């Protein structure tokens, strides 16, 4: 792949905030495009983005493009190694994690096209691991709380997860859509708001976080499915955004509370149940319930190999949320996934609350054989786009 032009433009994400779109034009005139999402809450160990998009664009034009234009690239690692050397910082603060990721993603698409490969096939080659295709499970965030909604729910996401291995991804989406609409009817009957939050889920005022879980169980049953067998529940606590976890779980201690709700409800995943520096409680919870529940580190690991290695060594968590914009390049994302898989961690490829129409994470999830794709509710175009892309990929089999 020979790059003749590389440039960025400013677009809007799903929250109406400015974000970066990168265009990579190759010598033969083919143009590949990628855009970068952002989170409502950025973990302290994430790659640092350049918030001023004008500056990000200038960094591409003045630093990155001159170093890449006219050069030939054959591998993703050769692109990303150059990007990392141009930035020269551990947390990408010089050029911006969003700047590097936009270029890395656009070049990834350009490389795939230049080699006449699908994006999935090219990512698999870059990943370098023989992947056994397993049924990809969608995680539908249909009740929003925390930083994703203007309501009184402390926990950030309440998700339904279709579990049946024998049905297609499209059929799993059909189940999620049905539950979503049943939930809407139920909330209307309860005289609750059916306005939606950042990720497309409903954002009602409820008496407690546990009531949200109970309502999900009821909606699953009313839709004609069996909780725990057909449909599981996942809860993202997002503890970094909870001012006082003890108040949120009162009268129980957080550890006891999590043990209780995972025993009483068909919860299969708890994400970020403790803050990103509370390794001891992560260890204790993993020991207590890790054999039956996936404990996913998002803010804890930030798609970062160094952070993940600490978790593996300390037996803190058993699952990881993968978000490419937390680390800044495709290659680093793949290395983190590889480390997690070798440690028998489950992989959840995830969107951000401030999204674009870009569907790269869908191809990534399929390419690496991830267990979950977390892209929000079956609602709002930027969320549906991710699920639709997997449906398209599934139809090509």
TrEMBL record:
Checking SMART domains in the record gives:
Enolase_C (SM01192), Enolase_N (SM01193)
Task: Please give one Gene Ontology molecular function term for this protein.
Answer: phosphopyruvate hydratase activity
Superkingdom as given in the UniProt entry: Bacteria
Query: Where mainly found?
Result: cytoplasm
This entry's Enzyme Commission designation comes to: 4.2.1.11
Binding of (2R)-2-phosphoglycerate: at which residues? 156, 323, 352-353, 374
Q: Which GO terms describe its biological process?
A: glycolytic process
Q: Which UniProt keywords apply?
A: Cytoplasm, Glycolysis, Lyase, Magnesium, Metal-binding, Pyruvate, Secreted
A matching Pfam family: Enolase_C
Active site positions, chain numbering = 199, 323
Q: In which pathway is this protein known to take part? A: Carbohydrate degradation; glycolysis; pyruvate from D-glyceraldehyde 3-phosphate: step 4/5
Question: Where is the Enolase C-terminal TIM barrel domain positioned along the sequence?
Answer: 132-397
**Reaction catalysis annotation:** (2R)-2-phosphoglycerate = phosphoenolpyruvate + H2O
GO CC, one annotated term? phosphopyruvate hydratase complex
Q: What does the entry list as the binding residues for Mg(2+)?
A: 236, 271, 298
List, separated by semicolons, the cofactors it needs. Answer: Mg(2+)
Q: How many cofactors are bound and how?
A: Binds a second Mg(2+) ion via substrate during catalysis.
Localization of this protein: Cytoplasm; Secreted; Cell surface
List residues binding substrate.
148, 157, 271, 298, 350-353, 374
Q: Which family does it belong to?
A: Belongs to the enolase family.
What task does this protein carry out? Catalyzes the reversible conversion of 2-phosphoglycerate (2-PG) into phosphoenolpyruvate (PEP). It is essential for the degradation of carbohydrates via glycolysis.
Q: Which PANTHER family does the entry link to?
A: ENOLASE
Official protein name in the record: Enolase
Task: Give the organism the record lists.
Answer: Candidatus Berkelbacteria bacterium CG10_big_fil_rev_8_21_14_0_10_43_14
